[in-house]
From TrEMBL:
Keywords in alphabetical order: Membrane, Transmembrane, Transmembrane helix
GO MF annotation terms: thyroxine 5'-deiodinase activity
InterPro entries: Iodothyronine_deiodinase (IPR000643), Thioredoxin-like_sf (IPR036249), Thioredoxin_domain (IPR013766)
Membrane spanning stretches: 248-266
Record Gene3D superfamilies: Glutaredoxin
Organism: Dactylosporangium aurantiacum
Pfam families found in the cross-reference section: T4_deiodinase
Domain of life the protein comes from: Bacteria
The protein, known as: Redoxin domain-containing protein
Signal peptide: none
Residue ranges constituting the Thioredoxin domain according to the UniProt record: 30-182
Keyword Transmembrane on entry: yes
UniProt KW Ribonucleoprotein keyword: no
Length: 267
Protein backbone atom coordinates (compact mmCIF):
# COMPACT_ATOMS: atom_id res chain seq x y z
CA UNK A 1 0.00 0.00 0.00
CA UNK A 2 1.48 3.44 -0.87
CA UNK A 3 2.65 5.47 2.09
CA UNK A 4 0.34 8.33 1.18
CA UNK A 5 -2.94 6.42 1.34
CA UNK A 6 -5.41 5.47 4.04
CA UNK A 7 -4.21 3.72 7.15
CA UNK A 8 -0.59 3.63 5.87
CA UNK A 9 -0.61 7.43 6.23
CA UNK A 10 -0.71 6.89 9.99
CA UNK A 11 2.68 5.18 10.22
CA UNK A 12 4.10 4.15 13.59
CA UNK A 13 7.80 4.02 12.65
CA UNK A 14 9.63 6.68 10.70
CA UNK A 15 11.69 5.19 7.86
CA UNK A 16 13.87 6.02 4.87
CA UNK A 17 10.97 5.89 2.40
CA UNK A 18 9.16 8.56 4.41
CA UNK A 19 12.27 10.72 4.52
CA UNK A 20 12.65 10.52 0.73
CA UNK A 21 8.95 11.33 0.28
CA UNK A 22 9.35 14.39 2.54
CA UNK A 23 12.04 15.85 0.30
CA UNK A 24 9.98 16.34 -2.87
CA UNK A 25 6.42 17.21 -3.86
CA UNK A 26 4.54 14.86 -6.15
CA UNK A 27 4.36 16.10 -9.74
CA UNK A 28 0.60 16.54 -9.49
CA UNK A 29 0.75 18.27 -6.09
CA UNK A 30 -1.28 21.50 -5.91
CA UNK A 31 0.92 24.55 -6.41
CA UNK A 32 0.73 28.22 -7.38
CA UNK A 33 -2.19 28.89 -9.69
CA UNK A 34 -4.08 25.75 -8.65
CA UNK A 35 -7.32 25.70 -6.70
CA UNK A 36 -7.33 24.15 -3.26
CA UNK A 37 -9.04 20.75 -3.01
CA UNK A 38 -12.33 20.59 -1.14
CA UNK A 39 -12.00 20.43 2.66
CA UNK A 40 -14.03 21.13 5.76
CA UNK A 41 -12.04 20.95 9.01
CA UNK A 42 -12.92 21.67 12.60
CA UNK A 43 -10.70 24.04 14.56
CA UNK A 44 -9.75 23.41 18.16
CA UNK A 45 -11.84 26.38 19.30
CA UNK A 46 -14.95 24.89 17.67
CA UNK A 47 -14.89 26.88 14.43
CA UNK A 48 -14.57 25.63 10.85
CA UNK A 49 -11.91 25.95 8.19
CA UNK A 50 -13.56 25.35 4.80
CA UNK A 51 -12.51 25.78 1.19
CA UNK A 52 -15.95 27.27 0.49
CA UNK A 53 -15.70 29.89 3.24
CA UNK A 54 -12.13 31.11 3.56
CA UNK A 55 -13.25 34.62 4.46
CA UNK A 56 -12.29 37.96 2.90
CA UNK A 57 -8.56 37.77 3.64
CA UNK A 58 -5.75 35.76 2.07
CA UNK A 59 -4.94 32.63 4.08
CA UNK A 60 -1.57 31.32 5.22
CA UNK A 61 -2.15 27.59 5.75
CA UNK A 62 0.64 25.63 7.39
CA UNK A 63 0.85 21.90 8.11
CA UNK A 64 2.56 20.71 11.28
CA UNK A 65 2.67 18.34 14.22
CA UNK A 66 4.01 18.24 17.77
CA UNK A 67 6.76 15.76 16.89
CA UNK A 68 8.11 17.58 13.82
CA UNK A 69 11.50 19.28 14.37
CA UNK A 70 10.84 21.69 11.51
CA UNK A 71 7.49 22.68 13.03
CA UNK A 72 9.40 23.31 16.27
CA UNK A 73 11.71 25.64 14.37
CA UNK A 74 8.78 27.26 12.54
CA UNK A 75 6.82 28.07 15.72
CA UNK A 76 8.60 31.35 16.52
CA UNK A 77 8.63 32.26 12.81
CA UNK A 78 4.86 31.90 12.59
CA UNK A 79 4.32 33.91 15.77
CA UNK A 80 6.47 36.75 14.39
CA UNK A 81 4.73 36.70 11.01
CA UNK A 82 1.31 36.60 12.66
CA UNK A 83 2.22 39.63 14.78
CA UNK A 84 3.23 41.45 11.59
CA UNK A 85 0.54 40.34 9.14
CA UNK A 86 -2.26 38.86 11.28
CA UNK A 87 -4.58 41.84 10.71
CA UNK A 88 -4.39 41.31 6.92
CA UNK A 89 -3.95 37.55 6.57
CA UNK A 90 -5.84 34.64 8.13
CA UNK A 91 -3.35 32.24 9.70
CA UNK A 92 -4.35 28.58 10.07
CA UNK A 93 -2.13 25.71 11.16
CA UNK A 94 -3.49 22.28 10.21
CA UNK A 95 -2.50 19.52 12.60
CA UNK A 96 -1.38 16.41 10.69
CA UNK A 97 -0.12 12.93 11.52
CA UNK A 98 2.84 12.92 13.88
CA UNK A 99 6.08 13.31 11.91
CA UNK A 100 8.08 11.27 14.45
CA UNK A 101 5.74 9.15 16.59
CA UNK A 102 7.49 7.64 19.58
CA UNK A 103 6.90 5.17 22.35
CA UNK A 104 5.67 7.94 24.71
CA UNK A 105 3.81 10.26 22.33
CA UNK A 106 2.68 8.20 19.38
CA UNK A 107 0.53 8.41 16.29
CA UNK A 108 -3.11 9.29 17.07
CA UNK A 109 -5.41 6.28 16.68
CA UNK A 110 -8.71 8.18 16.65
CA UNK A 111 -9.92 11.63 15.67
CA UNK A 112 -10.35 12.44 19.36
CA UNK A 113 -6.66 11.62 19.88
CA UNK A 114 -5.72 13.81 16.93
CA UNK A 115 -7.82 16.67 18.28
CA UNK A 116 -5.99 16.41 21.62
CA UNK A 117 -2.67 16.47 19.79
CA UNK A 118 -3.77 19.64 18.00
CA UNK A 119 -4.66 21.29 21.31
CA UNK A 120 -1.25 20.33 22.71
CA UNK A 121 0.43 21.69 19.60
CA UNK A 122 -1.32 25.05 19.93
CA UNK A 123 -0.58 25.31 23.65
CA UNK A 124 3.04 24.28 23.21
CA UNK A 125 3.68 27.02 20.65
CA UNK A 126 1.31 29.56 22.22
CA UNK A 127 -0.23 30.21 18.81
CA UNK A 128 -2.67 33.09 18.81
CA UNK A 129 -4.28 31.98 15.57
CA UNK A 130 -6.49 29.10 14.40
CA UNK A 131 -5.37 25.49 14.64
CA UNK A 132 -7.46 23.07 12.56
CA UNK A 133 -7.54 19.28 12.67
CA UNK A 134 -7.34 17.16 9.53
CA UNK A 135 -9.29 13.88 9.59
CA UNK A 136 -7.64 10.77 11.01
CA UNK A 137 -6.40 9.60 7.59
CA UNK A 138 -5.19 13.07 6.60
CA UNK A 139 -7.42 13.60 3.60
CA UNK A 140 -6.42 17.25 3.08
CA UNK A 141 -2.77 16.63 3.91
CA UNK A 142 -2.59 13.73 1.45
CA UNK A 143 -4.32 15.78 -1.26
CA UNK A 144 -1.51 18.34 -0.98
CA UNK A 145 1.31 15.72 -1.26
CA UNK A 146 1.97 15.31 2.47
CA UNK A 147 4.98 17.20 3.79
CA UNK A 148 5.57 17.62 7.52
CA UNK A 149 5.69 21.43 7.57
CA UNK A 150 4.73 22.89 4.21
CA UNK A 151 3.00 26.27 3.90
CA UNK A 152 0.59 27.76 1.36
CA UNK A 153 -0.63 31.28 0.69
CA UNK A 154 -4.18 31.07 -0.65
CA UNK A 155 -6.30 33.96 -1.90
CA UNK A 156 -9.88 34.42 -0.75
CA UNK A 157 -11.21 32.56 -3.82
CA UNK A 158 -9.22 29.41 -2.96
CA UNK A 159 -6.37 29.81 -5.48
CA UNK A 160 -2.88 28.98 -4.22
CA UNK A 161 -0.52 31.91 -4.77
CA UNK A 162 2.59 30.61 -3.01
CA UNK A 163 3.99 27.33 -1.68
CA UNK A 164 6.89 26.81 0.73
CA UNK A 165 8.38 23.39 1.36
CA UNK A 166 9.21 24.36 4.96
CA UNK A 167 7.44 26.95 7.10
CA UNK A 168 10.62 27.95 8.94
CA UNK A 169 11.85 29.69 5.75
CA UNK A 170 11.04 33.05 7.30
CA UNK A 171 12.56 35.39 4.73
CA UNK A 172 10.78 33.75 1.81
CA UNK A 173 7.43 33.65 3.63
CA UNK A 174 7.73 37.29 4.67
CA UNK A 175 8.42 38.34 1.07
CA UNK A 176 5.39 36.40 -0.18
CA UNK A 177 3.16 37.80 2.56
CA UNK A 178 4.34 41.33 1.76
CA UNK A 179 3.44 40.84 -1.89
CA UNK A 180 0.02 39.34 -1.19
CA UNK A 181 -0.97 42.01 1.35
CA UNK A 182 0.05 44.66 -1.19
CA UNK A 183 -2.32 43.11 -3.73
CA UNK A 184 0.43 41.51 -5.80
CA UNK A 185 0.91 37.90 -6.84
CA UNK A 186 4.23 36.81 -5.27
CA UNK A 187 7.10 37.28 -7.72
CA UNK A 188 8.40 33.86 -6.71
CA UNK A 189 5.64 31.29 -6.41
CA UNK A 190 7.68 28.67 -4.57
CA UNK A 191 10.34 28.32 -1.91
CA UNK A 192 12.49 25.24 -2.51
CA UNK A 193 15.02 25.97 0.24
CA UNK A 194 16.16 22.68 1.76
CA UNK A 195 19.55 22.72 3.52
CA UNK A 196 18.93 25.85 5.61
CA UNK A 197 15.49 24.82 6.93
CA UNK A 198 16.70 21.30 7.75
CA UNK A 199 19.83 22.53 9.54
CA UNK A 200 17.72 24.93 11.60
CA UNK A 201 15.49 22.00 12.56
CA UNK A 202 18.29 19.57 13.55
CA UNK A 203 18.86 21.29 16.88
CA UNK A 204 15.23 20.63 17.80
CA UNK A 205 15.51 16.86 17.29
CA UNK A 206 16.79 16.11 20.84
CA UNK A 207 13.77 17.93 22.26
CA UNK A 208 11.43 15.81 20.13
CA UNK A 209 13.18 12.68 21.41
CA UNK A 210 12.70 13.81 25.02
CA UNK A 211 9.02 14.50 24.40
CA UNK A 212 7.99 11.58 22.19
CA UNK A 213 10.35 8.86 23.44
CA UNK A 214 13.70 7.26 22.70
CA UNK A 215 12.29 5.24 19.79
CA UNK A 216 12.30 8.45 17.74
CA UNK A 217 16.09 8.66 17.88
CA UNK A 218 16.48 4.98 17.01
CA UNK A 219 14.20 5.41 14.01
CA UNK A 220 16.13 8.45 12.76
CA UNK A 221 19.44 6.59 13.14
CA UNK A 222 18.07 3.82 10.94
CA UNK A 223 16.41 6.12 8.39
CA UNK A 224 18.91 8.99 8.16
CA UNK A 225 22.19 8.40 10.04
CA UNK A 226 23.72 11.79 9.05
CA UNK A 227 20.74 13.69 10.50
CA UNK A 228 20.79 11.51 13.62
CA UNK A 229 24.51 12.21 14.08
CA UNK A 230 24.01 15.94 13.67
CA UNK A 231 21.12 15.79 16.15
CA UNK A 232 23.36 14.06 18.68
CA UNK A 233 26.21 16.54 18.13
CA UNK A 234 23.81 19.47 18.45
CA UNK A 235 23.49 18.64 22.16
CA UNK A 236 27.02 19.96 22.62
CA UNK A 237 25.74 23.44 21.81
CA UNK A 238 22.87 23.79 24.29
CA UNK A 239 23.90 27.35 25.09
CA UNK A 240 23.02 28.37 21.54
CA UNK A 241 19.43 28.94 20.35
CA UNK A 242 18.06 25.66 19.02
CA UNK A 243 17.99 26.92 15.42
CA UNK A 244 21.76 27.53 15.53
CA UNK A 245 22.74 24.18 17.03
CA UNK A 246 22.40 22.22 13.79
CA UNK A 247 24.70 24.53 11.79
CA UNK A 248 27.18 24.45 14.71
CA UNK A 249 27.06 20.65 14.74
CA UNK A 250 27.65 20.57 10.98
CA UNK A 251 30.65 22.89 11.34
CA UNK A 252 32.08 20.70 14.12
CA UNK A 253 31.62 17.58 12.02
CA UNK A 254 33.38 19.30 9.13
CA UNK A 255 36.36 20.15 11.34
CA UNK A 256 36.56 16.59 12.66
CA UNK A 257 36.40 15.05 9.17
CA UNK A 258 38.94 17.53 7.80
CA UNK A 259 41.34 16.92 10.70
CA UNK A 260 40.99 13.16 10.35
CA UNK A 261 41.75 13.48 6.64
CA UNK A 262 44.91 15.46 7.33
CA UNK A 263 46.09 12.98 9.96
CA UNK A 264 45.35 10.03 7.69
CA UNK A 265 47.29 11.64 4.83
CA UNK A 266 50.26 12.19 7.14
CA UNK A 267 50.52 8.51 8.04
Amino acid sequence: MPLSTGAAYRFNRFGTALLIDDMTFARNAPGPGDRMPAFDLVTVDGGRFRDTDLGPLPVLMVFGSRTCPVTESAGPVLRRLHAEFGDRVRFVLVNTREAHPGDVFGQPATFADKHRHAVQLREHHAFGFEVAVDDIDGRLHRAMSPKPNSAYLIDSTGIIRYRAHWANDEAALRTALTDVTAGRVPARGRSRAMAGPLMRAVGHLPGIVRYAGRRVERDVWLAAPPLALLGRLSRLFNRLPADRRGPAALALLGVVVSTAGVLFAAL
